Every structure is written in C-alpha cells, then in structure tokens.
Amino acid sequence: VPFPIQAATLPNSLAGRDVLGRGRTGSGKTLAFGLALLARTAGRRAEPRQPLALVLVPTRELAQQVTDALTPYARALGLRLATVVGGMSIGRQAGTLRGGAEVVVATPGRLKDLIDRGDCRLDEVAITVLDEADQMTDMGFMPQVTRLLDQVRADGQRMLFSATLDRNVDQLVRRYLTDPVVHSVDPSAGAVTTMEHHVLHVDDTDKRRTTTEIAARDGRVIMFLDTKHAVDKLTKHLLNSGV
Known about the structure:
Elements (H helix, E strand, L loop, with lengths): L3 H11 L4 E4 L6 H13 L11 E4 L3 H17 L4 E4 L5 H10 L3 E4 L1 H9 L10 E4 L2 H6 L3 H8 L7 E6 L4 H10 L4 E4 L19 H12 L12 H13 L3
Parallel strand pairs: 1-6, 1-7, 2-4, 2-5, 3-4, 5-6
C-alpha cells in the first residue's frame, strides 16, 4: 500500500508536472519523487559529466538514504546513479561522473565544487528534486541551491519537498516551480498516539542486564546511544548474548 504522499503525487510527477510536496521525514516521500524520476529517465543514456536527473539534499546522511532507497529500482531500469557529497573522495566522485551517470544525488556544496572543476554540467538535467528544502535553506545553502537550479534545463520538471514553507522555501517555489501541484501530508498521519513512556532508574551494575532484557522482548526494538563506539559495543554484547 503506498504512503499517502506517494498516492497523491505519483500521478502528477509521472506526468511531468512540477510538484510541491509537504511531508515530514518518514512520510514516504523518497519514493514519491524517486519512482517518477527514474521512470521518466529510463531509456535515456547520459553523456560523460552530463547527468539527466538531479536530487539535491542537505546532508550526506540523507544522500545515502536516498541512494539506498533508489538503487534497486535504478538497477532494474539500467540507470547509473552517482552520489556526490562532502567528506568523501572528490576524485572518485569525479571519476564516476566522467564515466556517465543518469541520476545524481548530491549535497549542494560538493556538486558546486565538481562543477567548478569541470567534472559535471547540469544543462542536460531534465528532472530536479529538492528534498528537505527547508533544512537546506536553514543550513545556509540557499545561494548555492539557486546557482545550481539556474543551471538545469529551463523546460525541465522540478519537484520540491519540505516539511515547512518558510520565506526562503516559498521564494524557491515562486522562482523555480511552474504551476506546481501542491500535496500536503497531514502532520499527524502515521503519528503514534498510543505510546507509553517509562523512565527506568538503573544502577550501572544492572544496566547491561536490563538493556539485554529489553532488547530480547518480542517485536522490534530500537535503541539509541550517544556514540558510534557505544553502539558497536552494545551490538557485540547483544549478539554474544543471543539476542
């Protein structure tokens, strides 16, 4: 069963309309734009350094999530997908773009760097997605985003997804979206209203045992820790305990 945002936007996005989607993280919006982007790009082949579709995201983590979600579908359609983010080897990313990629998932800063180096051009991009646009503007990416959007095809399709429509996001909508179809997901849709909260005061000596008991309960359990090292350590302990 599709998420509400998918059922609402896919008919329009598949038809090539500009889309303004309001939905939180976890609302299913990645496939709402991703499936249309892939379906409309399928059958075309990108020249070196000239992608055909672009997804702009604010963070490296979100870029990875989008890449992970779209990769199986891209492979099935014979589309090459490149992820372009800071904190990773720019040389390797440049090499991927030189080899040709139909779809690029990127953070604004790193994509700008690759364009400045001559490793990427956006004049063949026919479908552009801005995901979590409000977060992008909050993080100060507005000048880079507008510079990038000015380089994609003027007659292309644009889809913008945002939890809020503050002044900067509204500015992007007015400037870059043409007669967009607007879809909103009720913020309360899918929200858990029956959750109980419990606080356990546990001695350090009992913490490990209590954690193991909670993790071994029926059903799914999510545990949050403060560092990656702590996560690795707890994971090892739980596996050794047979959880």
